Amino acid sequence: CSCGSYADAERIIADHGIKHVSGILLDLGYSSYHIEGSGRGFSFQKNEPLIMRYEPNATE
């Protein structure tokens, strides 16, 4: 497992000695539940504040 910027992907892959990549699996950490769920503030389609937080009870 490696973490880094997408801009560093070529270097990270080379650092692991990988010569060929057929595909990449990304876990972006969110689902439609997070985006569409009421009270989370990710959507302009609902009449609610646009707070854009995964945790609706977070203070910061």
UniProtKB/TrEMBL annotation:
<dbReference type="InterPro" id="IPR023397">
    <property type="entry name" value="SAM-dep_MeTrfase_MraW_recog"/>
</dbReference>
<keyword id="KW-0698">rRNA processing</keyword>
<keyword id="KW-0808">Transferase</keyword>
<dbReference type="InterPro" id="IPR002903">
    <property type="entry name" value="RsmH"/>
</dbReference>
<dbReference type="GO" id="GO:0070475">
    <property type="term" value="P:rRNA base methylation"/>
</dbReference>
<dbReference type="Pfam" id="PF01795">
    <property type="entry name" value="Methyltransf_5"/>
</dbReference>
<dbReference type="InterPro" id="IPR029063">
    <property type="entry name" value="SAM-dependent_MTases_sf"/>
</dbReference>
<dbReference type="GO" id="GO:0005737">
    <property type="term" value="C:cytoplasm"/>
</dbReference>
<comment type="similarity">
    <text>Belongs to the methyltransferase superfamily. RsmH family.</text>
</comment>
<protein>
    <submittedName>
        <fullName>16S rRNA (Cytosine(1402)-N(4))-methyltransferase</fullName>
    </submittedName>
</protein>
<keyword id="KW-0949">S-adenosyl-L-methionine</keyword>
<keyword id="KW-0489">Methyltransferase</keyword>
<dbReference type="GO" id="GO:0071424">
    <property type="term" value="F:rRNA (cytosine-N4-)-methyltransferase activity"/>
</dbReference>
